[in-house]
Design a protein that fits this description.
The complex is a heterodimer of chains A (260) and B (661).
Chain A (H helix, E strand, L loop, with lengths): L12 E10 L5 H10 L12 E9 L4 E9 L9 H5 L4 E7 L3 H17 L5 E7 L6 H13 L3 H8 L15 H10 L3 E4 L8 H11 L12 H17 L6 H10 L6
Helix pairs in contact in A: 4-5, 5-6
Chain B lengths: L1 H10 L8 H11 L46 H6 L24 H8 L17 H8 L2 H4 L13 H14 L6 H6 L18 H8 L15 H9 L3 E7 L4 E4 L4 H20 L6 E4 L2 E8 L2 E7 L5 H19 L1 H10 L6 H4 L3 H13 L2 H5 L2 E2 L5 H14 L6 E6 L2 E7 L7 H13 L2 H5 L2 E6 L10 E9 L20 E8 L5 H17 L2 H11 L4 H4 L7 E6 L4 E3 L10 H19 L7 E6 L3 E7 L3 E8 L6 H17 L1 H4 L5 E2 L1
Helix pairs in contact in B: 1-23, 7-11, 12-15, 12-18, 15-18, 17-20
The chains are: A alpha/beta (260), B alpha+beta (661).
């Protein structure tokens, strides 16, 4: 996980903008913290707004620099989500294996992404908190996801552990989520940010799934950044008074399109 | 002992002189800033019946002694109610209350003594923060604040009702015989350590305080430990409740729904009873517990305290919690929700901010100089260095920037702002609380983009705050990325860039990169790092050999305060809490009335001496060791020396003006 950019200069490097979405308290920030810092905190306090982090992942043939938007799950932040997924090449939609409602919320996010995000966006459905479900379930599903890089593989393997679902804190059977993921062509993993299970794998799988064509140069997101900046510049003149806040944000909202 | 004396003054005398107060005000204005020229503490001579004990200044009004029961049994709840229960050092050595005559240091005294001096150089310096009104706002209601149902019944439509209300609450929350109360009863033989400590021992208080921040146990499914948990709940020294005017719980510092439902119901009933009678309930006392109620539109906020804080101080705390809620929702949003449905459950939209409210509340419970003074603390650096940092901020300022701040170790280093807008201390406090008290932002690592409403600036809309933490102790590597998630030490420097532009993240991120580059180029980062690592000065660093052990100096014009390190005398949470309680009392004596300035107030107990000094320019609160070792003249001289030092170092310890664009 260490930043190895220095040693890999020859490899081409690409930026991938990734957004995490999902209900509050499913473990989005914990997944990111595990991925970026290989660290875990019990009882992490809720994210406020959104956090922006970066992390490099090495693929055999290139370096992927993830630019990660870790968003807050509370409903009041939902209206800001488009800002974060608008230019995203990948999305991690996270639910909590031990909470039934969280998959429903995840499905809403998937639908919204398919409707509104960039057409080529790679979406991974991630069931987190695997450490809370029983050991036998753990072996089965962990193996399943670890073995497979492709979504198809996941489906086959996950069908096996249906019997584990009632015995523990698990509220969402692997098969159910996997079937949904297959139907929507999503990557699918069950993870534990606490133990680190499958966390690296999710990001690697996403990196592999990003179409080569959509990978830009090292400053891959430069276009997006430029767009934002230009937008900001335009905003500036009309907003020099800086008093009418609501008006200002409304105006920005209307210009969403030109940021891509 | 001071606690007792001062509480007597704070809780008891009902300020029922509305007709007198305007006249008083006029007098006050007569003694304006220009009249107080002296930099010296006027020598105050007076006699007191008990050696070493003083009474608060009464500012000219005849000091009505509180109505007292004929006989005071030291352990009776009535006796406790009259003064701060927590720290009554006591027992037989305690002089009887009746023996302590009230002596007042009148305004007139000061006037005469200082009137002959030449006018102080004018203080026409530019006011950098507009928070000046922050305190004043609360003052209007002061007159009635210290009235309690128990002592006067004046807020109860009839005395009978007052009694009834009191008994309801007494039963539920503060029954004199409940275990929690007993826990807090001072050990009668605990006091008497005159030589070393600045505060009397009180192990019961210490115990209660140590467990104050513990979570309550969960109630077992069979309810077998319910009583235990309820006792834990009741033994908390401080509670905050927020409920809607429809009586729905919104937030409580302690306890979950199951534990607080009854209390919410009772509190709600009491509040609406008075609202129904068109007589707004502001506060009441039950046993040793003070309840203060604040109604804000659709919300009712209740503070319940055993710390002996004044109503004004509790109100400032409630105001701050209210601002935190507005900061999350904005006022129009919240009003819209309640307009649509009066029974709205506000917990849902506020979800995730409970930790912010709790962090604020715990700050108040631990004791916060910043809240007490409604002022900010700055990092002490040279004026030229600060100017360089301000100019660097201005130089890299991006077009959509509203406010730019650099904060280090929880203290403000630099601010840039538009000419038209100042920064409200209350808003800054919310931001500091979010960043430095509640761990959510810091713990996440990375950079943050946070929508928030700054109610002091504009309570109707959101601003967007870019936050980036730098660990300046690793400057040699690369300053840009934060190293790890678990670090989170005091040494961190936060760069806060606030914009009205929702999409401004990358713009401000670029500004931050430019800023960090420039600051490391002109060595400002090193200066900040050194200043942070140096920590706060100790009293003896400031004035060698001073008798002062700690002080708070608030510059009124700058709405900022300066204080020394809590080390070595107040380095435990409990010592700090006691110190802050003393400051609370001193603050109360300066602020209970529409305040004539200048004003000086001395307190002596066997354990410590303290001084509160208010002028149009500053407020000073200072603590020195016991009168056995320190003379009052020495304390006065030390205070003078300190004021001189601060004046000389004003542009180092305060941000004056800041960068303006």
């Amino acid at each position: 996980m260490a930043d190895t950019a220095g040693g890999n200069a020859p490899k081409p490097s690409s930026s991938v903008k990734l957004v995490l979405l999902g209900e509050a308290a499913v473990g989005k920030s914990s997944l990111v913290m595990r991925f970026v810092n290989n660290d875990f905190q019990e009882n992490k306090e809720p994210t406020i707004g959104a956090a922006f982090l970066t992390q490099r992942t090495q693929l055999p043939h290139r370096t992927i620099k993830f630019e990660i938007w870790d968003t807050a799950g509370q409903e009041r932040f939902a209206s800001l989500a488009p800002m974060y997924y608008r230019n995203a090449q990948a999305a991690l939609v996270v639910y909590d294996l031990t909470k039934a409602s969280s998959l429903t919320k995840a499905q809403h996010w998937v639908a919204e992404l398919q409707r509104q995000a960039s057409p080529g966006i790679v979406i991974a459905l991630v069931g987190n908190k695997f450490d809370l479900v029983s050991p036998e379930g753990s072996a089965a599903a962990g193996g399943a996801s670890l073995d497979d890089e492709s979504e198809e593989g996941n489906n086959d393997a996950n069908a096996e552990d249906e019997d584990a679902e009632d015995s523990d804190a698990r509220k969402i059977p692997t098969a159910k989520a996997a079937a949904y993921a297959a139907e929507e062509s999503l990557l699918f993993y069950e993870t534990s940010a606490k133990t680190g299970m499958n966390v690296q794998e999710v990001f690697t799988a996403i990196a592999n799934a990003i179409p080569e064509a959509s990978l830009k140069g090292p400053r891959g997101s430069g276009g997006a950044v430029g767009g934002s900046t230009n937008l900001g510049g335009g905003q500036n003149t009309e907003n020099s008074g800086r008093v009418n806040l609501t008006g200002a944000s409304g105006a920005i909202g209307g210009k969403d399109g030109c940021a891509c | 002992m001071a606690d007792r004396i001062m509480e007597t003054a704070a809780a008891a005398p009902p300020n029922e002189h509305p007709s007198e107060s305007p006249r008083q005000d006029n007098e006050v204005e007569g003694i304006s800033a220009a009249d107080f020229k002296s930099e010296s503490v006027p020598p105050v001579e007076r006699t007191t019946s008990a050696p070493g004990s003083e009474l608060p200044s009464r500012e000219g009004t005849p000091p009505p002694l509180p109505p007292r029961p004929k006989t005071i049994h030291p352990k009776s709840p009535e006796a406790q109610a009259g003064f701060s229960s927590l720290r009554v050092p006591g027992g037989s050595s305690r002089p009887s209350l009746q023996a302590q005559a009230t002596t007042a240091l009148s305004v007139g005294d000061i006037h005469t003594q200082s009137g002959a001096h030449a006018p102080r150089p004018s203080s026409s310096r530019q006011v950098s923060f507009a928070g000046f009104g922050f305190m004043r706002k609360h003052r209007g209601s002061d007159a009635g604040d210290s009235i309690s149902i128990r002592s006067t019944g004046s807020y109860a439509p009839t005395l009978e009702t007052g009694g009834e209300v009191e008994s309801i609450v007494g039963d539920v929350l503060a029954g004199a015989d409940n275990p929690a109360w007993k826990l807090l009863t001072p050990h009668l033989d605990g006091a008497g350590n005159f030589a070393e400590t600045l505060f009397p021992e009180d192990s019961a208080f210490e115990y209660a305080f140590m467990t104050e921040f513990d979570e309550l146990d969960a109630i077992d499914p069979d309810g077998s430990n319910e009583e235990l948990v309820m006792n834990q709940f009741k033994s908390k020294l401080k509670h905050f409740l927020i409920l809607s005017s429809a009586g729905k719980p919104i937030w409580s510092r302690h306890g979950d729904d199951r534990q607080i439902t009854n209390y919410i119901g009772v509190v709600s009933t009491i509040i609406s009873f008075y609202q129904g009678a068109k007589d707004v309930l502001k506060g009441f006392t039950a046993g040793d517990v003070r309840f203060v109620v604040m109604s804000k539109g659709p919300l009712n906020l209740v503070a319940i305290s055993r710390f002996g804080e004044s109503d004004t101080q509790l109100r400032v705390q409630l105001e701050s919690l209210y601002m935190q809620i507005l900061s999350t929702l904005t006022l129009p949003n919240m009003e819209r929700m309640f307009k649509a449905r009066a029974s709205t459950d506000l917990r849902r939209p506020l979800r995730g901010t409970e930790t912010l409210l709790s962090a604020l509340a715990d700050g108040f419970t631990r004791g916060s100089p910043s809240t007490l003074l409604s002022a900010l603390e700055c990092l002490r650096i040279r004026k030229t260095h600060r100017t360089t940092i301000n100019n660097t901020l201005l130089k890299v300022k991006s077009p959509n920037l509203l406010y730019g701040l650099i904060v280090a170790g929880g203290r403000l280093v630099s601010v840039v702002r538009p000419k038209k807008h100042s920064l409200h201390p209350g808003d800054l406090q919310l931001i500091f609380n979010m960043l430095f008290e509640a761990g959510s932002v810091k713990a996440g690592g990375g950079e943050n983009w946070i929508p928030l409403c700054l109610p002091g600036f504009n309570n109707t809309g959101y601003l967007y705050m870019y936050v980036s933490f730098l660990n300046v102790n690793n400057v040699n590597e690369e300053v840009t990325e934060r190293p790890s998630t678990s670090g989170g030490s005091d040494e961190e420097v936060a760069i806060l860039l606030i914009s009205p532009n929702k999409e401004g993240f990358f713009e401000l991120r670029q500004m931050r990169d430019d800023l960090v580059e420039q600051l490391s180029k002109n060595a400002s980062l090193n200066i900040i790092r050194d200043a942070v690592n140096l920590g706060r000065l100790s009293c003896t660093d400031i004035i060698p050999g001073t008798v002062l052990r700690h002080f708070l100096y608030k510059s009124r014009a700058n709405v900022q305060f300066f204080m020394p390190s809590f080390d070595p005398y107040f380095n435990t949470p409990i010592a700090r809490r006691r110190l802050l309680t003393l400051y609370n009392h001193l603050h109360t004596t300066l602020h209970t009335r529409p305040s004539p300035t200048p004003k000086i107030h001395h307190v002596s107990t066997p354990h410590h001496m303290a001084l509160a000094w208010s002028t149009p320019l500053f407020e000073l609160y200072a603590v020195a060791p016991s009168p056995a070792t320190t003379s009052r003249a020495a304390l006065a001289a030390a205070a003078n020396a300190l004021v001189g030092w601060v004046r000389k170092n004003e542009e180092r310890v305060f941000i004056i003006g800041g960068g303006v664009f």
